[in-house]
Amino acid sequence: MTTMLTFHQIFSIILVVTIPIFCTSKYSLVAEAKNVAFNVDLVHRDSPKSPFYNHSLTTSQRVAAALRRSLQRVVLLKNGSTPVIPDLGEFLMKISFGTPPVDVLPVADTGSDLTWIQCEPCPNCTKQINPPIFNPYNSLTYKAVPCTSELCHSMPETSCNATTNTCHYSVSYVDKSVSHGDLATDIVAFDPPVSTFPHILFGCANGDARSGVVGLGGGPGSLISQISPFIGGKFSYCLVPFESKKSGKFYFGQTFPITHRTVSTPLVPNYPSTFYYITLTDIFVGSERIIIPEPPGSAGLPKEGNTIIDTGTTLTNLPLDIYNQFEAAIKKEVKLSPVDDPQGILSLCYNTLNEHFFPVVTLKFPLGKGFKREDLRLTPSNTFVQTSDTTKCLAFSPTENDKPAVLGNFAQKNLFVSYDLEKKTVSFRHTDCEKE
């Protein structure tokens, strides 16, 4: 009898190899052997598995907190030129630093480049429940980046600590907090010693009230950019629903098998390079089409790279004019009277939990090379969020007209989202992420 393996089982079969390496990158060492594949859990910060979990909050209060963080995060996405980065994302990822390895649990964020963690001594750092704060003096492989290093000058917001001659970094957040400390390199591992990467650049924070971040963005110096030669420029993730007791998955080194149900579209270079950009051409609410307007002189085509894919933003954001058309189309399709959001956050809500009242929303993208599907269908579970025991609200919000749209994590739940940075494509496929 033939045994069929699930996607999760396939990627759980990891080949342990010795990888000869040679230095060709200013950020890390590059492996001769590619396609190292492994996966890690993605734990939502409001799930019972998270150290941030607050037992006293109701589900509606947790949803409201996530929505408020999402709206705050959009402050950065509205202005890509600012050095201020958004509030940290929604999912935690277990990762190890140093020799011997020390497990830490920072936030995994596709909207950040620099990976940083709390380091001793850090009197102002967040109290860590589990795991502990990393002590660089106990790591045999930790190396501070000197001021004269090319690494120091290649990263933004760095300065020189004249006393120690080490490179100092500083990262500002929209809530006015700051992470600062030393730039350093060390061994980084996932499930050590199976998936171990030497000489990874990161920030060792000694004055921050946050737990840290795994920078999964597309810019220079991100963890993805540093280990890209090891993983063949490929990674994927599968996000479980907000209320799930299971964890999502982040897959390094592989994309999911392509089928007739796969939607693929080009990744488009844009500024800042931290974010992953795609081009949205149309939105359908049921059969009603909303055309994404083109900028002047574009020969009738929407602006390339007009949409950011972001795991750290809960809501999906649309430019105001498009959002107004979208909301009007939703109201036209839903044969119910709108009500106020009990949380006072979202603008279109209905006093029902029955998803049969809500239309299917379809996002249309340019075709990726060699693919036949260009439309991503979002079911009501991707577009409406429950904000109280009796109310569901549209999980979209408006942004300014000249700013990019943002495909948030709520719209991405129960989708395999797969990036191939070498082919410059991103693909989507519906699945049950709780079973993967």
Short account of what is shown:
By secondary structure, this protein is an alpha+beta fold. It contains seven helices and 32 strands.
Report on this model:
The chain has helices spanning about 5-10, 60-75, 150-155, 225-230, 320-335, 380-385, 410, and strands at about 20, 30, 40-45, 90, 95, 100-105, 105-110, 115-120, 145, 160, 165-170, 180-190, 195-205, 210-215, 235-240, 250, 265, 275-280, 280-285, 290, 305-310, 315-320, 340, 350, 360-365, 375-380, 385, 390-395, 395-400, 405, 415-420, 425-430. It is built from seven helices and 32 strands. The longest helix has 19 residues, at about 60-75. It is an alpha+beta fold. It has a 17-stranded mixed sheet that branches.
Please describe the topology of this protein.
Layout: H1 7-12, E1 21-22, E2 30-31, E3 38-44, H2 59-77, E4 91-92, E5 95-97, E6 102-104, E7 107-109, E8 116-118, E9 143-144, H3 150-154, E10 158-161, E11 166-172, E12 178-190, E13 195-205, E14 212-215, H4 223-231, E15 234-238, E16 248-252, E17 263-266, E18 276-278, E19 282-285, E20 288-291, E21 307-309, E22 316-319, H5 320-333, E23 338-339, E24 349-350, E25 361-364, E26 375-378, H6 380-383, E27 384-386, E28 392-394, E29 396-399, E30 405-407, H7 409-412, E31 415-420, E32 425-430
Parallel strand pairs: 7-14, 8-13, 21-30, 22-29
Antiparallel strand pairs: 1-2, 3-4, 3-16, 4-7, 5-6, 5-12, 8-14, 9-12, 10-11, 11-12, 12-13, 15-16, 15-31, 17-32, 18-21, 19-20, 19-25, 23-24, 24-28, 25-26, 27-28, 31-32
